[in-house]
Design a protein that fits this description.
The chain is of the alpha+beta class. It has one domain. Helix content is 28%, strand content 12%. It has 4 helices and 5 strands; from the N terminus they run ββαβαβαβα. It has a 3-stranded antiparallel sheet with strand order 3-5-4. A two-stranded antiparallel sheet has the order 1-2. The N and C termini lie far apart (43 Å).
């Protein structure tokens, strides 16, 4: 038994991937990169947040692949895009993006204790960051002030 280098979960010695976050147990991201080829980026997160999102997606039956920066950058560059920040990049099938983004939003809202009662993240003004109120460029996928990311389906 060993520990996953990505999330720290226990991984059986003969396992191909971590049961919690899906990171390749062999240390090679090539298979994961191939698995993510037809998928879309839903979020780029710190390891602990990525593990929570991957677990929530798995619980709801949504397939997901987590890629480290170098593999995600290579994959996104092949599509003419680039990740906005460093971390674990979570990819899902295009048809699952809306559901995955909603799950990600639930996790974000659940982690913010000072939100007003009845806060609806879908009702925010798209010209301002819902977390800090900073004005946003219409093409922004991340708030320059606080770093909040907006999944592809939100912008």
């Amino acid at each position: 038994m060993s520990a996953c280098p990505t999330c720290g979960a226990a991984v059986e010695d003969d396992a191909d991937a971590c049961p919690r976050c899906g990171a390749a147990a062999s240390g090679s991201d090539a298979a994961e990169s191939r698995d993510a080829a037809g998928m879309v980026l839903v979020a780029t997160l710190a390891t602990i947040d990525a593990a929570a999102l991957l677990e929530a997606l798995e619980e709801r039956g949504i397939a997901a692949v987590a890629l480290h920066d170098h593999e995600a950058r290579r994959l996104l560059a092949s599509r003419g895009a680039a990740p906005g920040r460093s971390g674990l990049h979570i990819f899902v099938p295009p048809e699952s993006l809306e559901g995955a983004a909603a799950i990600h939003q639930e996790l974000i809202v659940g982690s913010l204790p000072d939100l007003p009662e009845g806060y609806d993240p879908g009702a925010h003004d798209a010209s301002a960051c819902p977390a800090c109120g900073t004005s946003l460029d219409p093409a922004a996928h991340e708030c320059a002030e606080c770093g909040l990311e907006f999944p592809e389906s939100d912008r």
